[in-house]
Structures are given as structure tokens and as C-alpha cells.
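Why run this: before we spend reagent on co-expression, it is cheaper to look at a predicted model of the complex and decide which construct boundaries make sense. The entries below are exactly what would go into the expression plan.
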Amino acid sequence: MNDEELHGVVKEECKENLQSMEELLLEVDKGALDQEMIDSIFRTIHNVKSGVGILGLENISEVAHRLENILDEIRQSEQPQISREVLNLLFSGVDLLKQVMESEALEESYFLEQAQKLLNKLDSYEKGDEPVEESPDMEEYGETGIAGLVRGFNREYINNANNEGKGICRVQVKLRKDCMMKSVRAYMVVKALSEVVEIIEISPRADELEEEKVEEDFYILVSGENLDYSVVKEKLQGISEVEGVEVSDIDLDKGLEIFEHETGPAAFPSPEKKTDVQNRYFRIEINIASSALKAGLDPLMFMVELEEVGKILESYANMSDLPALEDLDPTCLHIYWTLFMETRKTKQDLESLFALVPENSKILIEDITGEADLWFKDDKKVGELLVERGLVSPEDIETVLQKQKRIGEMLVEEGKLCSGQVEKVLQKQEDIRGKSDTIRVDSQKLDNILNNIAELLIAQSSIKSLVYRLSDNSRILHGEIENAFQETDKIIRRLQEDVMKTSMIPIGSTFLRMQRLVRDMTEETGKEVEMVVGGKDTELDKKVIEDVADPLKHLLRNAVDHGLETPQERRRKGKDASGNIHLNAYHREGSIVIEISDDGKGIDCEAVWEKALERGIVNSGDRLSEEEIQRLIFVPGFSTAGEVTERSGRGVGLDVVMDNLKKMSGDIEVSSEKGAGTTFKIKLPLTQAIIDGMMVRVGEERLIIPLSGITEFIKAEPESVRQAAGKGLVLHLRREYIPVAALYQLFKLKPEFASPSEGILVILQEGHKKMALLVDEIIGQEQVVIKSIKDQLEQAEGIAGATILGDGKVSLILDTVALFRMSKQNNCDYQYDYAKSGDAG
Amino acid sequence: MYYLGKELTISNVEQVRRDLLEYLQQQPLEEEIILDATHLEEIDAAGVQLLLSACCKTTILQGRNIRLVNVGDHLRRVLEISGGDYILEKGCSGGN
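The model came back. C-alpha cells follow.
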């Protein structure tokens, strides 16, 4: 392997590790955290650090090293916690490292500035320049926090205070939008106020404030004798980053609601301090003399005692010498144990627990703290794992290795193990490893294979037409050739499917980026969002996944910025303060559907209509269904955003999304209920390379209609096609009335047959809508290779792409979804005059 | 179904073994044997060893299929810390 190849492999590994790390951090952000997770996060950054070292990026390596240190400290602490500050540092680190890994040149100097910034932040974190220590006022912060200054909501107390003639008022504090440490500012505000008034309650709750869940505004309910509003206001004036203070009377019947939260233990977090005692890891072998049971000793008591001083992580019973029931002397001990445990005790402490073991027992305690990584490493062989866990001896392994079978199987057969034990160990290994056997292939190679298959298809169809021409005279030969071609078609199709499957990847990693995006946005906007992601394992073409990321981002930004309300607004509407966004992916009818739904404001059809009128997108006389009005948001230049935000912007609206999706032969549906939320459904083809199509002819032109959109063909009787009042032609087909459109009119072609009853009607279906499309002739089914024409024909509506036919001519591939739209716009135009043409009808 | 008693310790483990063997002999070889631990409250290492011998060793060496059901929380934890928890999840089977 040369350097370049090595670097490629290392980069890939780093990327994978960074992705796992980001996934784990997002879990932590949601509140999940246990030792195992911290260890995994630590492992990932450790691996990345090694990788960066191999790549020779010194400064970047320093960043990875410092992040690793922080994580190491956390994982050694008694009660591991990752604070929001650390989490943000880690996220920034992941971002930087990801950028480095994504960069082609691996040139460190590009990233020096960013790295330095992050290192500075890490410096101040490590020096303990935590926000809380910024001001002398903060001394008590760690002890009692905001909660320590708050009395807690109690209606009776408020009423009594009111009856006693005390003043009660609401203080609204507005922090600057860019205020960095809102919780600290909030603390300073509350602390200052507590010097002149009594703080009854705060909204959001004290613990929420401390967790930085602060809007720009927060409210404080205060009481005091001879309450002077101007004194209250003055008290807060000197505090920096406080933008505004408003003190107002409060309606004791209705105004208290925002303060009426449960004051459970959560509101008063106990100030727990880190201790210096570290967790240690031990591997313990317990081999008690076989006579111990008879002597009245129960070896289980050792495990119970171990449990009392720590946590038994894994426990394995070695049953190599345990006989079956028939031969068992149950009063003798035939098993011994290997345990892995985590504890704060020392080796000596643990040894003292075994003071009572009888003679001929063997207790082995090994401190594996420093090498815990190695013990739970992922590249061990089954045999190694089994020996480590004490389930078999190395000799057992040797004996069975003589025979050539799978080691786990063999040990089970030998009665040394039972399959459950092997599975348990393998499960552990699988958990650590988290993936199965794979090889890395450059995606370019896969693309090349697919391209070659595509060329093969084209070449084959040209051979086909030549050979058919040659065999025109012999019916038998013609049939045989056709059979032979069918066989090769089948094989090429299988090959294509197999290669396509290898280039399909789960959409999970893209969804992960979206989760990150939403998380970052909640930080910026102050909105609370609960994001639920489903269908992560849904696989689709790598290229599609890459291309869909942008539209997805746009839609999610839109959902957070414009869809979801602020927590206050939501509370007012009786919704949960935190909004919900669901992101889901699934396969349906040969396509993939990605759904993004929120439970926010929903689309205000009236506002959309007004805006569309104002912009001249619609005319006041137009009659549009609700669905059509909602679709207007995708029209270029349309936007109903009340304010311009950095993220979603204005003007650059959802039309960009539509454009991008169209380029991918995809489409989007929107459904929304005012006040209840909006759902966007992105529909994409599984792959963009090859599709099954039906070739049709209109005049001299041959066009391809994707097979997935076609339900049937009919040759219509003249009487079944009628003129609908005020509309175009409709086809009466089995009690259904289906609008008729003529392909020659939609694309301004010269047809052979202008009458719907002379040509063939292709019945298209899209969702529950149907349409009959008039063509001259059906030529036949073809697998076609889509060649992108977006550069040349960007604005051509109704065209999904082009393909090269066997004879070298180019044929356009139609976009059925767009045909529906086009026919609706043109419907009134297509009125075939039967009387004039002389058809019966 | 074979019901384990309230206790499975060194004091009765030999008795239980004999009862169980007798019960096994009455059952056809291909029949799955179910040990019901509903009543089991007290267990020690001898008891755990008996269960492991029955549910694993006998299963493998004699082709018997023996399974433990209705395991209470206490018994479950004892089996977990004594490395016998795998007989809870999947039961044991030989040679695959």
C-alpha cells in the first residue's frame, strides 16, 4: 500500500469514527448518557487522533488530543456528565475534523485559524474559565444556582402576600439575542433582584434556565413590601447583555399560569461535585475448591459482595468440567467464573472480600483499567474472546483447533460450552464492532461499472435492431434470437440490480446531518424541537442521497424557522412548548419517499393566496383547490416569511427545493392544516441510472414514458370520449371519467392521428389521479439509460431526461408527474372537434 | 412441565436432581422439557450449577431440549451475576 492509499484508508476510517462520534453526541444531547456511551465516544476520538497522527497533521492532532483528554477526564469521573459547554466543544471539534477529512488536499494550513479558535476555547475550558466563574457574583452559583434564590410557586402563599398588602409583580427581562451565556446572565439578574425583592418563581423554570433553555425573554414573579417598580428596574440596569426590563402588574387569576410549574426535585438540582476517585476495571477469576459447597460455602456470596462494591459488567461461568445431570454430583462445585467489573475499590479492597475462600481455591484479580480498551477491542477472534472470558482454557482451543471446523461450533460439540455462551460473547463483540464484514470500494469504481452496464444496454439494443433486420426472412431464427436476447436482457438486469444494490447506502448518515442541523438551529433560534427520525436503514442510491441533502436541509430550516412557533406561542396555543419534527424515509411503489412533518403553524392558505395575488402569480379570477394553493409556495419568488432570517432567507424560497428535486426526477407533495402542522413528502426514483420505460411514437418522434406511471393502454371507441362542459375531453372508462390530453399538443409535435379514437390512449396514474394520454403508437418496453440533459434543457417541463436508442437516435424520457400538471394547464385547449373531422361521436 | 420448588440450594439439590432425572426418563426424548421457576425463591451456587447442568450440559450431551421459564427478578439477577443468564434468553442448544 503506498502512502496515498494508506491516507485514503485512514481518512475513511476517521470519517466513520467521526460519524459514530456525532451520532453518540446527539444521543447525549437528548439526555442519554452511560459509561458505555462515554467509553465509545472516547474510543472514537482516540481512533481519530491516531488517524490524524498518521496523516501528519500536527495542529489538528492537537485538537483531537485535547478533546480526548476532556473525554478521558469525564469517563474517569465518578458520575460522568457531559455539560452543554463540553458538548458544544465536542461538536465543534467533530465539525472541524470532518472538514479536514473531507478536504482533498489534506493541507493543514487551511484549517489553522479554525483549529486555533477551537484550541483557545479548549484552553479557557481547561483553565476552568467556565462561564460561572466570570463574575464575583458567581461564587454561589455552583452551590445553589438560580433555584437557591427562588421560593417556588405556591398559590396560597401568593394570595396571603396579596392579602397582607405586599406588592406582587412580573418582571420581564430581555437578554440580547447574541448573549453567549444566558444562564449566567439570568442568574445575575435573579441574584440582583433577590437583594431588593423576594423571588417567588421564574419562567422558564430554574433548572431550564440553568440548562441554557433560555429564550431571549424570561419572566420573574416577585413580591415585596412597598414594591417600587423603578427600584426593581434600576437594580437590573447595570447588568451587561440585558437589553430590556419591564416591570408590570400581574393578574393573580390569569397571569400566574406561566409560573405554575411543578417544583419537583428537578427544579432544585442538588449540587453534586466531581470527586477525584476514579472508576477502575477488574477481571476476576473465581475458582473455588470443589468441596466448598459441602462445607457450607456459597460462592454466589462473592458475586453478591462484588455487586455491593461496584458493578459486574460481564459474568461468565466456565462449564467445561460440568457433567450432565445423570453424572452430576451436585454437592461438588464443577464450575468456575470469570467476571469483569467496574468499581472505585482498589485491588486490595477486592482481595479482602475473598479472605474466606477455602484452601485449594484460586482467586485471580487483575486490574485492567489501563487496558480496558484492549479487553473490549473489536478485532479479537472468537477463540481469544472465549479464553479471555474464562469460558474455555487455551488448551481447549488448541485441542479443537486440530479439527477444521468453526471454533464456536466445535467447542459447543465438545460440551465445553453451550451455544448461548458463544452467542453472548459474540453479541458483545458485535455490539462493540457494530458492523459486519465489509470491504471498502471506491464509489467511482461502482459508478464506472454502472456506466458500462448502461453502455452495454445501448450496445445490445443496437445489435438487436441489426440482427432483427437480418433475420427478417426467417420466422424460426427470429424467434430463437428473441429468446437469446431475452436471456441476456435478464442477466444484464440482474447484474445491474446487483451493482445498484452495492451502491445503495442507508439514508441514516444524511438524517444524522439533519439532526445536527436542527440541533444547531434550536441553539440559534431558541425554539425547542423534539426530532424523531425513522427509516434510517432505508437504502437508496448514493448519488440520490448526496443530492437530496440540500433540499432536505432547506425544508428542515423552513420547518424550524417558519413552521414551528416559539415556545411561548405554543404554550399560548395549548401545545407542548417543544415542537415536533418527524423525519422518515420508506420505499413505496418503486420510489423512495422522504417525509418531513412538523406540528407547527401549518400553511395559512389565505395568506398564501394573498401573497400570490400580490406577486401576480395568480389572478383574482383563478379558482384553485386548497392543495393547489399550498403548492404555490414552490413557485419561484414566493415567500410568506414575516421576517428575513439568516437561515431560510427570503425570496430564495422553496422553488429551489422544487428545482433540485426535479433535476433528480423527483417530486414533492405538501399537505398542511392551519394550526396543526405541515407535511412534505419528497418522492424520488430509487436510482437515476436506468429505468423501465415504454416507448411510444407521436408522428416521427419516439418518446419514453416511465413504466411505473402507466396502468394500461386502450384504443378508445369514439363514443367513449366526450366533451365535458366547460372543460376538455374526458374518457369514459369503466364508470370512471378520465381527462384526456394529447402528447402532441403538450409538446407541440406533429401527430399522425389527431383524434383520440384513432390513436392509442395511455392511462397514467399518479396517486389517485388518472389521465389518458393520446399517442400514435406503442412501440414496446425498453430498459433505458437516463442521460442527464439538465444543462441543455433546464426549463423543459415534462421532460425527465433523455436516452440513446439502439439506432443512435436520442429519445426524450417523459416526467409523468409533470405531465399531470401540464395537462391541467392545457386541458381547456384540447378540444377535438369530432363533427369537423367527420368521426362519429 | 416440571415445577421447581421454593428452594434450590445445597440442602435439596441432590433430591431435585433425582426427581428431575426421573421426570426426564418419563418424557419422550424429542419432547421439550420445561422447568418452571414460578415458585423458586431461594437459590445458591449449587442450585445455579444444577440449572446450568440441566439446561446446558444435558441439553447438549443428551440431545434433550430443556428450558427454564417464569424466572423472577431475583433469580434473573442471580443468574446474571453468576454468568448463567444465557439460559434465560435463548435456552441452550447443542452444536449449532
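Chain A touches chain B at residues 293-294, 296, 298-300, 303-304, 306-307, 312, 315-317, 319, 322-326, 328, 330-331, 333-335, 337-339, 409, 412-413, 415, 418-421, 423-424 (CB under 8 Å). Chain A has 28 helices and 26 strands. Bring this page to Monday's planning discussion.
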